[in-house]
Design goal:
There is one protein chain. The chain is α/β, with parallel strands linked by helices. It has 14 helices and 24 strands. The protein has 2 domains: about 280 residues, Aldehyde Dehydrogenase, Chain A, domain 1, CATH 3.40.605; about 200 residues, Aldehyde Dehydrogenase, Chain A, domain 2. The chain has a 7-stranded mixed β-sheet, with helices on both faces. The structure holds 2-aminohexanedioic acid. The site of 2-aminohexanedioic acid has 11 residues, from loops.
Length: about 500
């Protein structure tokens, strides 16, 4: 049963009420600062009260005020806030997933997976709250101790994109909070309901654990709100996720005031498919990476670099799989293909396909709109054979288009792999150990994430997430990504009872 606008409004109301979002946040459509829409219908569900310009500075100032108190709270105590947040997220998994499906169009399994990613990062952050280790180094002076201490940084500005409307917020927020920072969040204007849902849960956890109220603020509005956050001298770190174009605007603005930025930008991710690969395994993984989330992940697979001996078979099998993918209502458990976010995404996809054709590419399957009985835009994932890696193949189009290139020898595959400006995620399918190791080595894949017999999307929370080159260089989530949210203080303690200068310098008369 396809959803009507009334069904979506009812479902959103139910989820928002269960999450504890106050109804006074909403207005009739068109009467708020922005409208919450669903890509299923394309129409506005509610108007949402956003933040006028004057209020933005006040919200950031409140966060700064809360930070002064929060930084003095011991880290393991701060961990209790994130622990409670994680419990509330787990309790409300389905409600958050419903909002993701309504606002982004993700299929239920992927929406639940995104919420699972929030729980996972909360667990990670709670553990970290007892492990923000600093090192102690041997001092060159007698009776001296040399050590580094990690301190809270300040207000962290988090800017997130529509495609992961809750997980990317949680990666930054869970870790920033245990690090003793306050967070001001500017979510995508396409996903205000998800933002209000997350904020309500965190506000509840704040009250229940006695954390300062201003430790998290949300700013709803358009790009001008994000710009105010980016330019605010009260915000020492901006963590921004989005397109490379957005990062090129944000990075220099933050740098101009000598702030720090953590950028997680566009990808143009490739899989190298070698003759020794287990094709059954590879094709299943490739289809999910290319068509999952309707090709709208930053980790989505966009280029397939296939050995010439297997390219015909691979193309036939991937086309058949694309053609079979069930498209339709993302709430229906059998659906694997949800809608694109909006008409503009469809226009961009068609423009990319035309450009590919104009440069000699052949659309082998897909690219056409699918009728589902709902007004949103569903498209069949496109497989496009391209003669060379130029023009449109070098660009990230946020839609399900998979370009196929063939290679003869492994060096050529690596050169093609690295021959784009983006550097987020990579995969190789091979049973040849030397190829696998080369791919992961210093002259292998030049991306922040590189996998063997695993495709490009669906990274786990435990590793550092992000990429190189035009992807911006930032790392979020696991490993030691927490260090970005702290300031390092190197301390020398002299307990020798005498002044001793380093480097053997004497300075007394
Ligand atoms: C994104 O698309 O911005 O690795 C994040 C993945 C997810 C996160 C994607 N865990 O595909």
């Amino acid at each position: 049963m396809m959803k009507t606008q009334a069904d979506l409004i009812a479902r959103a109301r139910g989820a928002l009420a269960a999450l504890g979002v106050s109804p006074d946040r909403f207005t009739p459509p068109g009467a708020g600062t922005l409208d919450a829409r669903s890509p299923l219908t394309g129409a506005a569900l509610f108007g949402v009260r956003g933040h006028p310009r004057e209020q933005v500075e006040a919200e950031i100032a409140q966060a700064q005020e809360a930070f002064r108190q929060w930084r003095m709270t011991p880290a393991p105590v701060r961990g209790r806030l994130v622990k409670r947040l994680g419990e509330l997220i787990a309790e409300h998994k389905q409600h958050l997933a419903d909002l993701i499906t309504i606002e982004v169009g993700k299929i239920t399994s992927e929406a639940l997976g995104e919420v699972q990613e929030m729980s996972d990062v909360c667990d990670l952050a709670v553990g970290l709250s007892r492990q923000l280790f600093g090192r102690t180094m041997p001092s060159e002076r007698v009776g001296h101790r040399l050590q580094e201490v990690w301190h809270p940084l300040g207000v962290v500005g988090v800017i997130s994109a529509f495609n992961f409307p809750v997980a990317v917020w949680s990666w930054n927020t869970a870790i920033a909070l245990v690090c003793g920072d306050a967070v001001v969040w500017k979510p995508s204007e396409l996903t205000p309901l998800c933002a209000l849902g997350c904020t309500a849960l965190l506000e509840r956890a704040v009250v229940e654990t006695g954390a300062p109220a201003g430790v998290h603020r949300v700013l709803l509005g358009g790009p001008e709100v994000g710009e105010q956050l980016v330019d605010s001298p009260m915000v020492p770190l901006i963590s921004a996720t989005g397109s490379t174009r957005m990062g090129r605007r944000v990075g220099p603005r933050v740098a101009a005031r000598l702030g720090r930025s953590l950028l997680e930008l566009g990808g143009n991710n490739a899989v190298v498919l070698t003759p020794s690969a287990d094709l059954g395994q590879a094709i299943d993984a490739i289809v999910f990476a290319a068509a999952g989330t309707a090709g709208q992940r930053c980790t989505s697979l966009r280029r397939l670099i296939v050995h010439e001996s297997i390219v015909e078979e691979v193309v036939a099998r991937v086309s058949a799989a694309f053609d079979r993918l069930p498209a339709g209502d993302p709430f229906d458990r059998a659906t694997l293909l949800g809608p694109l976010i909006h008409e503009r995404a469809h226009t961009a996809m068609q423009a990319a396909l035309s450009a590919a054709r104009a440069q000699g590419g052949q659309v082998l399957c897909g690219g056409d709109r699918i009728e589902t009985g709902m007004p949103g835009v569903w498209v069949r994932p496109a497989l496009v054979r391209v003669p060379e890696q130029t023009g449109i193949v070098l660009e990230e189009t946020f839609a399900p288009i998979l370009y196929v290139l063939s290679y003869r020898d492994f060096e050529q595959a690596l050169a093609l792999h690295n021959g784009v400006t983006q550097g987020l995620s990579a995969g190789i399918f091979t049973r040849d150990l030397a190829e696998a190791e080369r791919f992961l080595g210093p002259d292998g894949a030049d991306t922040g994430i590189a996998n063997v017999n695993v495709a490009t999307s669906g990274a786990e929370i435990g590793g550092a997430f992000g990429g190189e080159k035009d992807t911006g260089g930032g790392r979020e989530a696991g490993s030691d990504a927490w260090r970005a949210y702290l300031r390092r203080s190197t301390a020398t303690i002299n307990h020798s009872g005498a002044v001793q200068l380093a480097q053997g310098v004497h300075f007394s008369g």
